[in-house]
Amino acid sequence: MNTDQSDVIVVGAGALGASTALHLVKAGVENVVLVDKDGPGSGTSKAGAGFVGPLAAGWDAGWGRSELDVEYFSIDFYSDLATRHDIDFRHSGHLYIARDADAWKHVAKFHDTDTVPDSQLVEPDEIRAVTKGFLDGSSFHRAVFQPSAVQLSAGKAARAIAAEFATLGGRVESRRPVTGLIKIGNAVTGVETEHGPLYADKVVVAGGSWSNTILGGDYFLPQVPLVLSRMITEPLNVPANFPALNFAGYSDDGSGLLWVREDCGRLNWGMSYPDYPRDDLVDNPIPDRFDDIRLDGIFQVRRASQSLTHLMPGLATDKFWVAHGAPCLTPDRRALIGPIDERPGLYVVGGCNGVGIQHGPGWGKVAAEIVTGATPFVDARPWNANRFGGLYSTNRDVFLALSARSGPMTHV
């Protein structure tokens, strides 16, 4: 057999691509190749917050049952994955906390018992109990607790998914940057890489921020990369049994959610920010890696977290490291999954909208079902990759559409 010919090539070994490849082999596709310029989980997935829960209850007003279904699928998927791999998994829930009455409007929407039956309202004097004694709630307004949610290490999870794929017979090609598509007419028949061509009956591009570079200029995927950052302290012996915490009312304009969670005895926290370098990739080329991104936005994250240091002294440390990622947002904040009409043989999984780890397992299953001709397990029509037609042709077009839809984008 020609090892450069396969049934399906999946480009990008982050949470979305690795999950798509895994579900393809689970669906019976025998020859699947997962290609990445570095290795599994080395891009935006590495910087993921690691929250998985019923975000569709309040994260974005445009989301619906489809997003909620993949979120619950992801909880079950990661629960099972954790029985075979160390992904720092724990089933400790998510707690959304409002600083004051103005911030409550950003938190109250997460309490929707029609979509999240186990959602609980938490009064200030109950926050200490819910956080297993970690957090004094006396200075807060109110909170919402979602006990069904889980947390994990995003990078470890992406690598574990790729390992599962390899165990089932999939082929992982790391450190093999894809430089473009191979086409016969309009039909896509493989990919060019820095180490030679790879051919396939079908190609799935799940390259995140690099997807449009891979697609080459003759097709534009309507998504725009925005830089996000997180901070991780040195080990502080932080207990691991409290929920992931999301605080509303601490960003400069009051609308962003500052999240804090335990990470192997450390504190791991972040939030989106309107400062540079959030928009740096809208008009500039995508770098090979995110290591060299400037730290301007981190100062806003730091300002927000300083308001909580009296409750979590570890946030005041000057000893921390930073991880950057660039999740891609679509004009309607929903995913892009499926075939590209103008390019037979080409499929995409994109538009993570900042929730690739949360939705990746379910989106990967949907993508595999579409590629193999099966009926998706959830209603995938809202994610049709062709739904915008040719309305958007540049990152700037998508960015302006997002700005008009939601005002200043202070959260992703």
From TrEMBL:
Its keywords, alphabetically, are: Oxidoreductase
**Gene3D superfamilies associated with the record:** D-Amino Acid Oxidase, subunit A, domain 2 (3.30.9.10), FAD/NAD(P)-binding domain (3.50.50.60)
Q: Which InterPro entries match?
A: FAD-dep_OxRdtase, FAD/NAD-bd_sf
List the Pfam families hit by this protein, alphabetically: DAO
> Which parts of the sequence belong to the FAD dependent oxidoreductase domain?
7-369
- One MF term in GO for this entry? oxidoreductase activity
Which E.C. number(s) belong to this protein? Answer: 1.-.-.-
**Record PANTHER family:** SARCOSINE DEHYDROGENASE-RELATED
Q: State the protein's name.
A: FAD-binding oxidoreductase
The major lineage groups are: Bacteria, Bacillati, Actinomycetota, Actinomycetes, Mycobacteriales
